[in-house]
Amino acid sequence: MNPVGTRGREGRVRIGAIALALLAVPWTGAEAAAAKSAKAGKKAAAPQTLEQRLTWLAKRRPVAPSEYGVFVARVGEATPLVAVNAERPLILASTTKLFSSAAALDRLGEEYRFRTRVYRDADVRPDGTLPGRLVVVGGGDPAISGRLYDDDPLAVFRPWAESLARQGIREIEGGLVLDTSFFDDVRQHPDWPEEQEGRWYQAPVSAISYNDNVVLVRASGGFRPGRPALLGFHPAGPYLLSLIGQVSTTNSRTWMGVRRPAGSRTVIAAGSVGRNRTWMGDVTVPDPPLYFAAAFTRVLSDAGIRVGAPPVLRTAAAAEAGASLSAERTLLHTHETPILTVLSVANKRSQSFFSEQIVKTLGAERRGLGSWENGLSEVSEFLGTLGLDPGAYGLADGSGRSRNNRASARAYVAFLQALATRWAHFTAFERTMAVSGDPEGTLRHRLQTDATYGRVVAKTGNISGVVTLCGYVTARSGQRYVFSILINGGISEKRGHAWQDRFLNELATFG
Q1: 73 pairs with which residues across the strands?
Q2: pTM for this prediction
Q3: How many CA atoms lie within 13 A of 172 on its CB side?
Q4: Which of 127, 361, 489, 508 gets the highest tally of CB atoms within 10 A of its CB?
Q5: Strands, DSSP E only, in 358-507?
Q6: Peptide bond connecting 235 to the previous residue in cis, omega within 30 degrees of 0
């Protein structure tokens, strides 16, 4: 027998009886009114104004309080609608690209062209032989590829070869000289993860580049299972780059991988490929100018022009040491790519290689040598001309690959406000940014509701554990807003996108 337990049960029975008796007593009018008022009070506590709705959403944070920042304002107004943790500098990821691309457009102008020039350094003999060399002077163009030529990676070179053929050249005895002295000789930023050097999104930088400085590895299965697969580079085999691997033919599904260790000139392929099937993977090249030379030489050969010697590099270090080119050069061909075309790839597609080429070209054109230091100095000066404090923006590279690119949500919105309200190039620049629902940009699969489709113009950002989004949104009312949503703290891309999209849908719907 448990007296304590018995008393507990009896007590609960008595309390239940009292409660039932109370429920049976009808409420007075005053009590009912009080209850109704209390219920109404609870409803009134829910968000009512736009500012309340957005703040309510912003405070339902996806990460720790110190790891995200949100700032929203009407375009042209300093007072924020929402400012949550807006003063804390956070990692920007690819939203960094807007700083380098806007500075380049401002400093170089809307009519600027990335130029690659082809010269000869000797007279052509009557039999079509060039006794000297063909000199290619790089100007930082990131678009020498198939990207703008219906995905034909060799098409860009055909007008070059045709130009040489029209001028009677049939053989180049001295081969190609590749002058990359427009940029310094640093191809990988020191902040970038070494283990990702072979990935397409961390391609090296050079004044002469080709195909985003990425080569494709093609593996073709044989007729019989167990036989070795055929391996090769596409569209051209870069000089000094080797390909090794053990890839076999299989009856089952293809399983393949390809990698290039950091600092290595060897590409390693492994796995198996289906019978009579072809697999393709990509990897960065360590020597972009030599990759360029391999592809250009192939097109010259197709045009009946023989190249009689291996390519030679003229780097920034060689130029500084006094290695000069012949003063008797004759210009044969100039290839040009408009700056706005390049900026659109960088901003809409978030192509980091393009952004790094942009920032180094900016440094070269304005300060004599394409380096990260010179390019970023120009970005800082540009921010100053907008009336902003350059010290509020910690910029380490042009693309956002470095985790040392940092700014607060408030500072980022101040930058976007300055562009939209007091910058002469804003109309042209805005067209280079991603638009929600536009198949050409990184927002093509996001913000698809009636309230947001086609109404968000922004730059996305994503590196490991960081998801960012900054730009402009036009609400259903016609009011335009500027926003910065910076999320750090190890968030996944999927969760970060969902949180940002919900917030912007609320702003577009009720703003």
Answers
A1: 80, 482
A2: 0.89
A3: 27
A4: 361
A5: 406-407, 434-435, 456-463, 466-474, 480-487
A6: yes
Tell me if 359 sits within 8 A of 140, measured CB to CB: no
**CA atoms of 406 and 400, how far apart (whole Å):** 9
Cβ atoms within 10 Å of 463's Cβ, excluding its own: 23
Instruction: Classify 463 as helix, strand or coil.
Output: strand
Run of H or E including 118? strand 113-120
275 and 223 Cβ atoms separated by less than 8 Å: yes
User: Do residues 235 and 154 touch, judged by C-beta distance below 8 A?
Assistant: yes
Q: Give me 331's structure tokens.
A: 């210009």
* Predicted pLDDT of residue 37: 45
**271 within 8 A of 253, measured Cβ to Cβ:** no
With b for 16 or more beta-carbon neighbours within 10 A and e for fewer, the 181-190 pattern comes to bbbbebbbbe
DSSP-derived pairing of the beta strands 266-274 and 456-463:
unpaired
Q: How many Å is the maximal CA-CA distance in the chain? A: 122
Angle ∠(278,281,284) on CA atoms, nearest 5: 145
At position 449, the amino acid (one-letter code) is T
- The token pair at 29 is 């009018």
Distance between CA atoms of residues 86 and 90, nearest Å: 10
**Separation between Cα atoms, residue 364 and residue 430, nearest integer Å:** 25
Residue 64: half-sphere exposure toward Cβ, Cα within 13 Å = 8
Residue 223 confidence (pLDDT): 86
- Indicate the angle between helix axes 352-367 and 97-108, nearest 10 degrees: 40
What φ, ψ does residue 414 adopt, rounded to 5°?
-60, -40
Q: Which of 85, 94, 188, 200 is nearest to 442 (CA)?
A: 94
* Alpha carbon distances (Å) from 129 to 121, 189, 301, 312, 333: 12, 42, 14, 19, 18
- How many CB atoms lie under 10 A from the CB of residue 324? 8
- In the prediction, which pLDDT does 319 show? 86
pLDDT tens for 14-60 read 334 333 333 334 444 444 444 444 444 444 455 679 999 999 998 88
- What six digits make up the tokens of 237? 């085999």
10 Cβ contact list (under 8 Å, min separation 6): none
**Count of CB atoms situated within 10 Å of the CB of 451:** 18
Using CA atoms, how far apart are residues 501 and 498, in angstroms rounded to an integer? 5
Q: Alpha-carbon distance 135 to 335, whole Å?
A: 14
Q: Hey, which bits of 206-254 come out as E strands?
A: 214-220, 230-234, 242-250
Closest alpha carbon to 180 in 158, 205, 197: 205
Phi and psi at residue 401, to the nearest 5°: -65, -35
**How many angstroms separate the CA atoms of 365 and 359, rounded?**
10
Q: What is the pLDDT of residues 71-83, one digit of tens each?
A: 999 999 999 999 9
* Side-chain-facing half-sphere of 441: CA atoms under 13 Å: 24
* pLDDT beneath 50, residues of the chain: 1-44
